Amino acid sequence: MLRMDTSTETQTPAIQGLTSAEVAARVAEGKVNANADVRTRTIPQIVRDNICTLFNLINIVLAVAIFWTGAYRNLLFMAIIICNIVIGIYQEVRSKQTIDRLSVITQAKAHVLRDGTKQEIALDQIVLDDVISLSRGDQVPSDCVCLDGKCSCNESLLTGESDLMPKSPGDELYSGSFVSAGAVVCRVTAVGADNYATRINNAAKVYKKTVSGIMDALRFIIKLSTCLIIPLGILMFCKEMFLGAGNLSETILRTSAALVGMIPQGFILLTSAVLAVSVMRLAQHKVLVQDLYCVETLARVDVVCLDKTGTITTGEMEVDELIPLQDATYDDALHALVAIDSLTKEDHLNETSKAIRRYLAGVQERPDAPPAVAGVARVIPFSSEHKYSGVCFGSEAGNYVLGAAEFVLKGSADLPDVQATISRLAGIRRVLVVAKVDDFDAEDTIIGTPQPLALLFIRDVVRATAPQTLQYFADQGVRVNIISGDSVETVSNIAASVGVLGADQCVDMSTVTTDEEVARVAKECRVFGRVSPDQKRKLVLALQDQGHTVAMTGDGVNDVLALHASDCSVAMGSGSAAARNVAKLILMDDDFASLPHVVAEGRRSINNLQRSGALFLVKTLFNAALAFLFLFIQGFSYPFITIQMSLIDAFTIGLPSFVLALEPNKERIRGDFLRNIITKAIPGSISVVLVVVISCILSHVLGLSQSEFSTLCVLLTVVSGLNMIVRLSIPFNPIRVCMMAVCVAGLCLGVFVFGDFFRLAPFSMQMIIITLVLVVVVSVVFNIMYNIAQSTEDKYLASLKEE
Predict the structure, then answer these.
(1) Are residues 281 and 601 in contact, defined by beta-carbon separation less than 8 angstroms?
(2) Which helix (H) or strand (E) holds 332?
């Protein structure tokens, strides 16, 4: 219970708060403000999710089998698996630690009244019915009701509206809002999961992986490989063991080589490495990436949903102009403004007051600046009922008021003329009227007829980079939507001022009531005002249903639902912990001008991975095809063992793919990722399969051994790979020339110097002649197939462009 001390000495009730016994009882009942924020995943969860995958399980099983044979050099492929796991864990742990540090920065203590004394406790120790004191700068820790005092609250993180909300006894304060001015004593009405902000956060607590074209392609390839590996592996093992030489170790090595070759583990490592490099580059632009694949997603978005405050504008305001009215002079208006400013204490400044103070600070540097006004007789605080504030200095110095024209000049004959002037001059600016009045009554109502002195034009400070950034998105064909809790007129005017296309296509979302209407306005409008948190989510979902890939930026609890629903969520570093934890990207400096850098990195990553990914897919396709064919070929076993595949991987796939994947590439993304890499991979795969079949026939006719046949196949596969690298490297530059030289040199060393290590047979004259003939065959076949595939791809992309 709350008790009031009714001491006869003071005759003023004093709030005592809860007793220790009452606090203990509430703790026992679980009525405690337990932390229910959206949390990052724990390190054990991150480690588990990166290690316990079907992909890793298959490779570990194969590694155990190879280890049993004692052919340890054939385990080199596991280095790629380990690197891939380490990169994935490192990146996710790094993001988690950064977010956790940001969350610690925002933690604070609560000041409560218990047993009649003021105590400082942790936020998670607050209990239901606790009495807490809040002053300027404090974040409200739990939903509560005001008992004493007055304040102004910034609820923009909850509602999206930038206007300060006045609070007095009886009014509710919501967790997550900030006290911008004043001081109050409140009683806690909700704790933990029952808080308003927490109820919104709970809808976003499900961990959501980013959906991307690269990830979808990898999943498809791995699933397809998995479906083929088990039956092909069993059949190959049985064929080699019971119909072949019957050597168990050799059977395991050749079967493992085919199965390992069907899994593009290097492509997964390459993808992780390329995206990790993008993360490090973006960190230089103060962008924290929490999910590697979201870099690709943002590069593919065609709709970006932005909040006005914090993205287009900085959240600050500035005085743009002070225009005298009627017979008043500029000095009269300035004198009145100085008088009104004098009533505002430093700890009661809101954004409007700060703007006025900065303006006056600049004016008062002039030698003819009006002197400060002293001797305030009475202060009229701003209230949501009157929509003005005032100050009284007595009959000589005058009494002044500042506020909305329709409230200050209510009933005055000057109101129509003043409103006409405001309509003509306002534009994107907010307008307040400065007036001289006779006095105020006990209810703070203006007495007599106000004399308008001036119009004060105040505007949101627009980020200097906003027009340039918005123009970038327009040039890239990305539609920009402005979604805000502010009035639709204000948002539309500001959007138009910075060049948002279709800024006049706006809607007041408070008038939209059904899901059908939400879908309609999502399609037709570009500016959305008075948007509730749930409506933001519905707008994102409606855009996705219409086939769009949507990015959402936000900084508050009111944005959490929409951030969670979007394809790529972007939060501000100074925003709420809930928004940061849900987001895939965090702009640490709160500047959305960093987004073009993210798009550019995404394009470089996707375009280069499409080019390099084709190299890995060649190996997957030809290994699957050869594994199937050699089930029916008698006389020869599968041509490769694992260590030989490692040599092919290193210099025809691994090294060139990493070099090509890290080059600059700003081309716009075209087509489907999986289709693009399959189209490029098919020529190389067909040429390898064809030349291996021809080699098998010639080896059978000429009586070559299994070792000689394998050596021939390794060399011809290498030649096909080099042809692929040449075509992907056109046009050549110094880096690509050096890459080709290193690849050729490495392959020559492996084949001719370290042939024994890779179990390659010595070259006889007969093998040399066969090799030279088949090198010509594989090169001709590859280039014919590649030209056909390239022509088909060009026609496909042209059809997409026409659509």
Answers:
(1) yes
(2) helix 330-341
Residue 135 CB neighbour total at 10 angstroms? 14
Q: Residue 722 above 90 pLDDT?
A: yes
For CA atoms 136, 141, 144, 147, give the dihedral sign.
Answer: negative
φ, ψ at 180 (rounded to 5°): -90, -25
* Number of residues that make up the chain: 803
H or E stretch including 404?
none
How many beta carbons lie within 10 A of that of residue 407, not counting itself? 14
Nearest-10 Cα torsion for 17, 18, 20, 26: -150
Q: What is the pLDDT of residue 184?
A: 92
Instruction: Using pLDDT thresholds of 50, 70 and 90, give the confidence band for residue 105.
Output: very low
Residue type, 641: I
Q: How confident is the model at residue 517 (pLDDT cuts 50, 70, 90)?
A: very high
Which one is catalytic: 143, 307, 332, 649?
Answer: 307
Q: What's the helix, strand, coil split of the chain in %, to 5?
A: 55, 15, 30
- Among 4-8, 134-138, 370-374, the range with the most confident prediction by mean pLDDT is 134-138
Ranges of beta strands (E only) in 298-450 are 303-306, 313-324, 378-380, 388-392, 399-403, 430-437, 439-440, 446-447
What's the average model confidence in pLDDT over 55-62?
81
Split at pLDDT 50, 70, 90, the class of 40 is low
Residue 230, CB-side half-sphere exposure with 13 Å CA sphere: 9
Given a cut of 60, whether residue 204 has pLDDT beyond it is: no
Q: How far is 117 from 15, CA to CA, in rounded Å?
A: 10
435, β-bridge pairs: 401, 452
pLDDT in tens, 355-381: 888 888 877 655 555 555 555 667 777
**Global pTM?**
0.68
Q: What is d(CA 444, CA 437) in angstroms, rounded to the nearest whole number?
A: 12
Instruction: Name, of 10-19, 673-682, 772-781, the range with top average pLDDT.
Output: 772-781
Tell which residue, 384, 595, 382, has the closest CA to residue 473: 595
Q: Are 421 and 455 in contact (CB under 8 A)?
A: yes
368 in active site: no
| Six-digit token string for 142 | 């739990």
User: Of 538, 492, 493, which Cα lies nearest the Cα of 515?
Assistant: 538
Q: 4-5 and 550-554: which strand pairing?
A: unpaired
Q: Identity (one letter) of the amino acid at 663?
A: E
